[in-house]
Structure formats: structure tokens, C-alpha cells
Specification:
Elements (H helix, E strand, L loop, with lengths): L3 H6 L11 H13 L15 H17 L8 E3 L6 E3 L2 E5 L8 H6 L3 H4 L9 E4 L4 H7 L4 E6 L2 E2 L5 E2 L4 H11 L3 E5 L12 H4 L6 E4 L11 E4 L1 H6 L13 H16 L2 H19 L4 E7 L2 E6 L4 H9 L5 E2 L4 E4 L7 H15 L1
Parallel strand pairs: 3-4, 3-5, 5-8, 8-9
Antiparallel strand pairs: 1-2, 6-7, 9-10, 11-12, 12-14, 13-14
The structure holds pyridoxal-5'-phosphate (PLP).
The site of pyridoxal-5'-phosphate has 14 residues, from α3.
């Protein structure tokens, strides 16, 4: 990259204090995809997914510290008499939010948590798809609920009808922030955000993976109230919003929209699910998902099937020991579905 003219006019500086032209375009596009009530002015563009979750969780703490978001949560420690702000979080069993320290507090799996305990944010993990389980866990220290609309690493489990709206109502009633982690589900389920398509407006949405077609950039969308509660510069990073990443995101979002890739993800995803169900294969326990975020649960370990697919040029992921996860690129076309099905049937036989 040539530095002279770019540095002189300042608009394409990599210095995060100055901003850059691609970043301005990205802000505009991000505002377009954000749900109406979400304030897309104060996004953070740090790389990666866990970093986004960490930023979201840090916002909860900041908001509380300033007494803005949960004004009635100052607690007095019964033994020491000290006053302090309690903050704790409710997340879901099987939920995955990354492996940086704050995000790890929300991740359920012991395998990831154990080496780093104690974790900074006390969290409880409750049964998935049960608003009652969340309600039962709320106490005076609860500050946030964090959920994926479709659990990814946990095995592709889609929030049931009514689950997120019920959680939204609970969060609002208890003045608790609702953070929705769309790092994996963002842009691939037939809409920019699965949670919004399910009828809710979260307080914070984090998203990353697909937004620049795999190039590292993440986006945190927050409500106006949260945005205004944060001191300037509270959540920045050296490379956050750098022009190359912002440019990659701008192009990706443009292509998603202009080429109708949200709609195509919905149609092709439904076709894959239908075709797998139609196989009625005895080795398949279930197939579930939304758009191009699909899990095939087998009655056996998934590794041999995944290896077979790989030998036939199809790359898949596991989600737990028996689920094969399909997260294909959004530029998938009908011919790719045929290619996948051919390889899958071949491996199963
Ligand atoms: C829902 C969700 N949140 C957070 C993360 C963490 O993202 P990263 O691995 O980029 O830190 C992931 C990664 O798989 C994810 O699926």
C-alpha cells in the first residue's frame, strides 16, 4: 500500500483515531443491515469473534459502573459491608462464545473453561430453549443474558419459535441486557441477523465470520443508550476498522445484497435439508438448521464421514462428536448442492 498520499489526506490512514474512507462506507452499510432500533453509530471493528463478545461483555460492565443500565444493582457485601456493583451473566448450556477471557466466561464447555478458571464474569448456563430456566436463574446481580440464535459449536440447535421473544421480554422486564451472538449465524440464515428474523431487537449484536467473507473483521452493534453510556475510546484496538478489512466488508455486504445471497442462502439451505431428509438413511438421526448453517446428526461418530467428504473435495466441520456442520460459502449455487449431495450419499453408502 502506498503511504504518501494516503497519509497526507488522512482519509485512508490505518491509524484508528483518524478513520478511513472504506470504514465510512462500512458504517453506512452496517447501519443498513442493523435492525431499526439498533444504533449503528458506535460499532467496534476489532478482528475476530471472541474479541467481539469480549467487547460486548465489557460494555455491560461499563454501563453498570456508570449506573446507567442497571441502576438498582449496587450490592452490599453481607460480611464486609463493602458496596460494589455485582455483575453476572446467564448463558445457555452448549453455548459457545469464544476463548478470550471475557468470552470464555459465557462459553459453556468445561473443556475450554477449566484451564483458565476462575473466569472474570460469573456465569450460569441454563437449559436451551427454556425461557423459564432463564427466569428462574435471575437474581439481583444478573446483568446480561447472552445467547446464540442458532447454537453453532454446540451442534446446530435453532432457537424454537417464541424462545427469543420470550427472553427479550424477560430481559426488558428485569432491566438486563440481551446480547445476541451472531458471530457464526450472521448473514447466512436468509437474513443479515437470525435473531432479528426471529422477531427481536437485541441490545447488543456481535457478528464476525461472514461479514468480510472470511477476512478478519468483526462488528458490535449496540443500542443508542449503551453507546452513549461509554466514554470515548473505551473500546478500540490498533487494527480495528483498518481500511483493508473495512474494504473487504464493504464489498462482501454489497455482493450479499446485490446478488441476492440472503435469499439464496434460505432457498439452498432448505433444499439441502429436504434432500438429506428424503434419503431416510438409517445412519442419520436428524438434520437441522437455517439457511446455510446446517447440522447433520449421525448415529455414529462424524469423523469418518467428514474424512470421506474431504477425500471427495468437500470440507465440513464437526460440532460435537456426532454432528457434521455445513457452513458453505454464501456464493454456493444449485450445482454445489448437487455436488455435495453426491459426495455425501457416496460416503454414506
Ligand atoms: C457463536 C460464536 N461466538 C464466538 C466465536 C469466537 O470467534 P473467534 O474464534 O473468531 O474468536 C465463535 C467461533 O466459532 C462462534 O461460533
Amino acid at each position: 500500500m502506498k503511504s504518501g498520499p494516503i497519509a497526507r489526506d488522512g482519509t485512508n490512514s490505518v491509524l484508528n483515531l483518524i478513520g478511513n474512507t472504506p470504514l465510512l462506507s462500512f458504517r453506512r452499510l452496517a447501519a443498513d443491515v442493523a435492525p431499526v432500533e439498533i444504533y449503528a453509530k458506535a460499532e467496534w471493528y476489532n478482528p475476530g469473534g471472541s474479541v467481539k463478545d469480549r467487547a460486548a461483555l465489557a460494555m455491560v460492565r461499563d454501563g453498570e459502573r456508570r449506573g446507567l443500565l442497571t441502576p438498582d444493582k449496587t450490592l452490599v457485601d453481607a460480611t464486609s459491608g463493602n458496596t460494589g456493583i455485582a455483575y453476572a451473566m446467564i448463558a445457555a448450556e452448549r453455548g459457545y462464545h469464544g476463548r478470550t477471557l471475557g468470552a470464555l466466561s459465557a462459553t459453556a464447555d468445561k473443556k475450554y473453561r477449566a484451564p483458565f478458571e476462575p473466569l472474570p464474569i460469573p456465569s450460569t448456563h441454563v437449559a436451551w430453549n427454556s425461557p423459564e430456566a432463564i427466569e428462574a436463574e435471575i437474581n439481583e446481580g444478573t446483568s446480561a443474558i447472552i445467547l446464540e440464535p442458532i447454537q453453532g459449536e454446540g451442534g446446530i440447535h435453532v432457537a424454537g419459535p417464541g424462545y427469543l421473544p420470550a427472553v427479550r421480554e424477560i430481559a426488558t422486564r428485569h432491566k438486563i441486557l440481551l446480547i445476541v451472538d451472531e458471530i457464526q449465524s450472521g448473514f447466512r440464515t436468509g437474513a443479515p441477523f437470525a435473531s432479528v428474523a426471529m422477531g427481536i431487537t437485541p441490545d447488543i449484536i456481535v457478528t464476525a465470520k461472514a461479514i468480510a467473507n472470511g477476512f478478519p473483521i468483526g462488528l458490535t452493534l449496540v443500542t443508542k443508550e449503551i453507546s452513549e453510556s461509554l466514554p470515548g475510546g473505551a473500546h478500540g484496538s490498533t487494527f480495528g476498522g483498518n481500511p483493508l478489512a473495512a474494504r473487504a466488508a464493504v464489498e462482501t455486504l454489497r455482493i450479499f445484497r446485490e446478488d441476492g445471497l440472503y435469499e439464496r442462502a434460505a432457498t439452498l439451505g432448505a433444499e439441502v435439508v429436504d434432500r438429506i431428509e428424503a434419503l431416510q438413511h438409517p445412519g442419520i438421526r436428524a438434520v437441522r438448521g437455517k439457511g446455510l448453517m446446517i447440522g447433520i446428526e449421525l448415529k455414529q461418530k462424524s469423523t469418518p464421514v467428514m474424512r470421506g467428504l474431504q477425500e471427495r473435495g468437500v470440507l465440513t466441520l464437526s460440532a460435537g462428536s456426532t454432528v457434521i456442520r455445513l457452513l458453505p460459502p454464501l456464493i454456493w449455487e444449485p450445482a454445489h448442492v448437487d455436488e455435495f449431495m453426491e459426495a455425501f450419499e457416496d460416503v454414506l453408502s
